[in-house]
Design a protein that fits this description.
Radius of gyration: 20 Å
Strand content: 35-45%
Order of helices and strands: HEEEEEEEEHE
Strand order of the largest sheet: 3-2-1-9-4
Number of strands: 9
Structural class: alpha+beta
Length: 141
């Protein structure tokens, strides 16, 4: 038997002996554009159900499945005159989940395509995303 095979077998046996750790807990943010609601699941359990604002007429919030990428506690829109985007979590190009100060519009379509939340809810989701190492975003009509 070759040295490579012996080492390979030894490594395999070592890996089998290591303790198995459960997968990291996940956070899933499901956005229902028809209902203008976001349901946040932590470890598969519904934790929050919040009103949101998605794209108004003439704009699009894309449906699909995404992962949160770039995160910033305070972001300023480069496209919309430096508009504040507290607790921004980008999931697809220029699209993000973020807080809004136009809280009276939550629950109806009002954005240019981003998913807007109450600033306190955006802060909570931002914290969960950091704590659990990411968030999956699922958007549907």
């Amino acid at each position: 038997m070759s040295i490579a095979r012996v080492l390979s077998a030894a490594l395999f046996a070592l890996l089998l002996a290591l303790p198995v750790r459960p997968a990291a807990a996940s956070v899933v943010a499901q956005v229902d554009q028809t209902a203008q609601r976001m349901q946040v699941y932590v470890r598969g359990v519904l934790a929050y159900n919040w009103p949101v604002s998605t794209a108004r007429r003439g704009f699009v919030t894309p449906n699909g499945r995404y992962r949160v990428g770039l995160m910033a506690p305070m972001w300023r829109s480069r496209k919309y005159h430096g508009a504040p985007m507290p607790y921004a979590m980008f999931y697809s190009g220029g699209y993000a989940i973020h807080g809004t100060y136009a809280v009276g519009a939550l629950g109806r379509r009002a954005s240019h395509g981003c998913i807007r939340l109450h600033p306190a809810h955006a802060r909570e989701l931002f914290g969960l995303t950091r704590a659990y190492g990411g968030t999956r975003v699922v958007i549907r009509n």
